[in-house]
Amino acid sequence: MRPFIEEARYAAEFRNHYWTELRGVKGSAAAIKTAEHQTPYPTKIKNQKFNDEAVSDSGNNFGRIARGGLMRHLSKS
Predict the structure, then answer these.
(1) What is the pTM of this model?
(2) Is residue 58 included in any domain, yes or no?
(3) From CA 56, how far away is CA 67, in angstroms rounded?
């Protein structure tokens, strides 16, 4: 099997699009809190957040790109 490789920014944008638009949930349950830190490398502050987070994610599914079908979507391209 070949490894799955994709640009990180594209994968993150696809994940956010899936979470807010494609999974069929509306309102605050589909909201995303974007990371405060937006430049390529965090500063020397250790606790600086640099990942987007779902506002409501009791199942911890927000970061699982396979749920949105990213790997299946790109294999057809």
Answers:
(1) 0.73
(2) yes
(3) 16
